[in-house]
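Provenance and format

Records in this collection were gathered into a single text stream. Each protein contributes a sequence line and a token line. The two records reproduced below are adjacent in the stream.
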Amino acid sequence: MNSRKLNIRTENWSEEPFSISRSYEDNFDVVVVELEQDGVKGWGEGSPTEHYNESVQQTEALIEDFRKVLENGMSRQELQQAMPKGAARNAVDCALWDLEAKLAGKRVWELPQISKHLATDGKSEPGSVTTVYTLSLDTPEKMGEAAAKHARRPYLKIKLTGDGDLERLAAISENAPNSRLVVDANEGWTLEHYQRFVPELKSLGVEMIEQPFPADKDNILKTLERPLPVCADESCHDSGDLERLKGLYEFVNIKLDKTGGLTEALHLQAQAENMGFRTMVGCMSSTSLGIAPAFLIAQRAEIVDLDAPLYLYEDRASPIKYKVSKVFPPSAELWG
């Protein structure tokens, strides 16, 4: 195999102001990896997450540590064993998938490992999917106004935090009566919040609760009634977490920046399904380049949360196409 050339860079992107239970942001950094071989370039994007002790500097340094073996032909399988899960491996893994597809002259879903996962012959383009649209955490009044603005969207995801959440949901339900609702507390609830809120959620139209408790305190779910399915986000990074999550959660949220790329995300989704979990696919703040590989996981996911580019002021050239909340496959010019 001919040698490769590795390029690493950091980019900053501006987005609409967005709040969750533990943070606020109006811009974010991504680390982009480019791998060039035989005049062909593959690329991928990772979004370092401070909550997982990641920074741009740490992510770039980790990838740089692997420069020699990557340029000498390290495979995706070897990468899984050598580099820890997280944003760095995600950027590299997705660049390797893109490079492999382009060198083969195929779309990525035509490659055997992907077409097998999608249970297709690989010749047909994946179908469009419907994403949730996430409402940023705010006062009940402002979240109600945001819900009215997005009431035509079929699925809304509501960021919550604890006190005042029932008032937030009441305002949203009133202003977007035809939208399906899921809620995400981002580890922000206490036991008292859960016990007080959950009996009311169904009447407000909520269908699923995402990560109500901190990841290191979620064993409490074993003792609680779960009239609505509960989804593990911060508690589930890769397939190694699944055994512990049995009996705690009904869903797992698959994010490529947590799994460390598409390779492990495919494995996690298959393993989760085999163990009886329902799957959701999500994303960190990212451009269309970060969403493109996750679109393949969305083909089998019951809930799709791939809305990050909708908040960007500008996106990649040849971005993912959205029509209201419908998401279409990435173009070859973007990725895969």
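Adjacent record:
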Amino acid sequence: MSGHSKWSKVKHQKATTDAVKSQSFTKASRGLTVAVREGGGITDPEKNFHLRLAIEFARSVNMPKDTIERAIEKGAGVGAAAYETLVYEGYGPGGVAYLVVAATDNHQRTGSEVKHQFDRAGGTLATPGAVTYQFRKNGVILVPKTGRSFDDMVDMVIRLGGDDVIEQDDVYEIYTAATELSRVKSQLEDEGVVIELTELIMRASTPVAPTDEIRAKNDALVAVLESLDDVQKVYTTME
């Protein structure tokens, strides 16, 4: 149970630095709205796990409580545009595979923006299904390292039925099966573990290690895609 991942390095940093950016509020708000709509209109986070995750993310970027509540109301149909989730598949520089998850009320606008950025970077959009098989859905939980050794955390995660633990500078990344995320999170909390962030992600089945030049080009593409208002998440097969 060890390895390398930049997921927490990116997400952990974004959770603090994006708090001052209105863009992070836009993404969090859309995430809340979509979670309610795709959860059948259920506004109770105890009965809608995706909404619970969306609320946790909104709180992590310091979104005010009343703003969260308004976004949830919009998802329930109170005066809002009908946002829905779209997934774009593509290849970046060097053949790195991408999944780009968007929440949009305008397919044409979002598709055009995403395609433009791939074209600019020398990549290309792919047909549905061309890339998805290179990823698997996982749950990931960020836990501060304070007070627990790596071996202790591994032992706990194995006992609770988690899949993997990766040690980063100041957090542990705990990976679970997507269907087990809620249960493992709850049991970790019962053990007194502080949870910093919980999320469902698409994790590369076989990560690739590009050259420094190719990595830099893909990092730039990821950054510009994430800057688009409609884009919620970007996943790649890079290590």
